[in-house]
Records
---
Amino acid sequence: MAKQPVHGNSASARRNRRGVPPASSEAARLRMQRTRQRDTAAELALRSALHRAGLRYRVDLAPIPGVRGRADVVFPRQRIAVYVDGCFWHSCPVHQTHPRANSAWWAAKLQANRERDADTDRRLAEAGWLVLRFWEHEAPGAATQVVLEAVRARQALRFR
């Protein structure tokens, strides 16, 4: 009898994926499966507002080689990297939650995310980049204004 192929949705495949514990319920598994890594509503709203303001940019790009975190919006000429951080995944001080199921694993995971963000910010700053971070709950208009001012300031410095 031939072995059945192991699919990505099998329980054993999920458990064996880099030490990730199995989902606490089918609903939790489906929620995590549907969570977008890019093109979230907050990212799309910011990108749309930036485009309406006349800015052109790159999307989902690693600003420099070796930096694990891909920026949501990048202005390569001005060396500006914009991140729209999800409240859960990046531990927003206003909206962060702490899962009860697999709580130790989630605490370590979210702490590692915060440390990776800080390391990314440091490495980009050392390379001459300006990093702008916004929470997903922030108004796109306010974020757009900050980005617009930063782009204009960097353009003015470049042409001196």
---
Amino acid sequence: MIKIRNLSKDWKEFSLKGINLEIKKDEYFVILGPTGAGKTLLLETIAGFYFPDKGEVRIDGHDVTNLPPERRRIGFIYQDYSLFPHFNVEQNIEFGLKLRKSSDTNRKRLEEIMDWLDISHLAHRYPATLSGGEQQKIAIARAIAIEPSVLLLDEPLAALDLRTRDYLREELKRVKRELGITMVHVTHDQTEAMVLADRIAVMMKGRIMQVGTAYEIFNKPQNEEIADFVGVENILNGVVRSNENGVAEIVVDMGYNIFAVSDYHAGTVKSFIRPEDIILSEKREESSARNVISARIEEMSDMGPLTRVRMDNSLVALITKQSRESLGLRRGDEVYATFKATSVHVVR
């Protein structure tokens, strides 16, 4: 549905560099990255607010690289809603429809959208009297009223409280599912990306670093920078000692060995282990997991329902509060850290 080839754009203080992306029809595609990665600038370039210095943008098979936004059949939703304060809800939604010839058709479409999103009761209210969640629903209604082929969303949930964010995530999934719109959603929120995305592109410093499913991005990052960003706290440098039947034995810098499913047979590598994949126990227990490593607890930090446990062998584990209490863990305790060879992702 969207094909971006070798796209570059220089703003002097920042630039997009050699962007290549293919976004499928009816896909919910998330562009994930830290603040300042260039996510919004890329989205606005897709929308036609900026024209690239190099490369091309194609939407539904058509070259739109130099077309203005109004000729691209796209809807755009901003974080700050961008509603017209002097228009009521009905007038805000109707704004994009006024270019249509038939006022009867417009009226019918307006009523359908308001009923579908359950906002008919807000029709004569003004934006200043609405909650953040209500305003964002109006922004969604206005964007989809014109029946776009593509809906672009720039951090649409960032300004909302947790409960409203959860509710609107479900609404956005419903919009995609029932209307069949291709959606491109920019965020720095990793939970948001995991919940919504069919696929994710990680963006950093004006470049696309990796594209894949949520599982691939969060469990098989392609380099240390991505691993660090997506919360892989265990990044171990080491050397492959041997490899038998696709299971590599790696000597890590901290002086112990780990086993990983890997094609590497020799040389220096980096091993990534997500902290939630490490199980802690007081005793060395029988397990199918290849990795069982003794350690001493150096620090424990409460993170709501989870506890982050840092050990003296540089490993970090995330365990439930219930596990911590049942084990009676305290700083200085000796424990065994257990994880599977399939939980270790190895890169050069």
